[in-house]
Amino acid sequence: MRPYIIINCAMSIDGKIAMPDGRQARISSEEDMARVHKLRSEVDAVLVGVGTVLADDPKLTVKKEYVKKARNPTRIILDAHLRTPENAEVMQPNARTIIVTTEKEYKHGLLEIIKCGEGDMVDLHALMPMLYERGIKRLLVEGGSTVIWEFLRKKLFDELHVYIAPFVIGGKGPTMAGGKGIDSIEDAIKLNLFAIERYGEGIVLKFTPSQ
Ligand SMILES: NC(=O)c1ccc[n+]([C@@H]2O[C@H](COP(=O)([O-])OP(=O)(O)OC[C@H]3O[C@@H](n4cnc5c(N)ncnc54)[C@H](OP(=O)(O)O)[C@@H]3O)[C@@H](O)[C@H]2O)c1
């Protein structure tokens, strides 16, 4: 068994999810921020890669200004070599945090470190049942570029939500799906569009995977 997986990301009209040098950029409109926080409050866990933790230092909690009865989901960090800084926001004891590594196991209070896979990459297929066993039935994958690519490539998603902002960032910064990419157009990851919704000045496109 695996959780129901929603991938969510915000990009500029030219597909960029951050500044050209990888710094965090506020891409979502205020209305989209409200949508994302509501989504976080409806899932059991929010997952990001350690690249996002190091670049953005996100809290991954639910803000009361967007959701009145805010309930923080578990935070999951893919971090093969335990690079998450001890003082990172995701290490604060305001929500449960699971760090997934290829190195060791540990549990204390709201922090759990679990081992899954070998070397540089956490084994995502093996991780999903481990999360399900820990009560995570709905999972929101928020990035970044490498992590979204890996979930798409492995067809580990049920919905993909993309907010598109009406501005251009340019440059060679991170895009929604980084990683190695495909070798031939026949290998493109195909999607079915099922919703187009307006959030302030931008739109959200929602997809399911195509068989
Ligand atoms: N606009 C948005 O919606 C949005 C949201 C989030 C992030 N971002 C942006 O995304 C950028 C960060 O993206 P990123 O690609 O550098 O980092 P990332 O995708 O957040 O993290 C990638 C890292 O996670 C670790 N990892 C371990 N197992 C993995 C697996 N199975 N699959 C994928 N990653 C695995 C690897 O590091 P180790 O080998 O060290 O474990 C890998 O380098 C930042 O610029 C951030 O601002 C944008």
Q: Which percent bin holds the helix content?
A: 10-25%
Query: Which sequence of SSEs, written as H and E, runs from N to C?
Result: EHEHEEEEHEHEEE
CATH class: Alpha Beta
| Biggest beta-sheet profile | 10 strands, mixed
- Give the strand line-up of the largest sheet: 5-6-4-3-2-7-1-8-10-9
Which structural class best describes the helix and strand composition?
alpha/beta
How many beta-strand runs?
10
CATH superfamily: Dihydrofolate Reductase, subunit A
The CATH architecture assignment turns out to be 3-Layer(aba) Sandwich
Tally of DSSP helical segments? 4
**Would you tell me the overall average pLDDT?**
97
Span between termini: 19 Å
Q: What's the gyration radius in Å?
A: 16 Å
Low-confidence stretches: none
Q: What percentage of the residues does DSSP assign to strands (E)? A: 25-35%
CATH-derived topology: Dihydrofolate Reductase, subunit A
> Bound small molecules, which ones?
NADP nicotinamide-adenine-dinucleotide phosphate
Principal-axes shape call: globular
User: Number of folding domains?
Assistant: 1
